[in-house]
Amino acid sequence: xxxxxxxxxxLRRREVLLLTCxxxxxxxxxxxxxxxxxxxxxxxxxxxxxxxxxxxxxTLTDERARLLNDPTYVERVAREEFRSTRQGEILLEFxxxxxxxxxxx
Length: 105
Prior knowledge:
Blueprint: H1 2-69, H2 71-82
């Protein structure tokens, strides 16, 4: 009986020691794990932003090339965005027709 109690006491000490070591290890590694997760999310967000900006760069490079090399495109942009006219032309502006589905006040 005495040896059984000594065995149980030794077993409980081991369990407490293992539990304590596990808790300490968890306390040491938890901040690192949280930091790792946060940095992984930042990396994914940054990769998405890089992809979006790369598409924008290609679009703007194409737009620049068209503006530098295509006089017809330059004229169209000038007319549509800046209401530019040729000498002797008169710019006529019309109101937008009302939307049939809109509710009038």
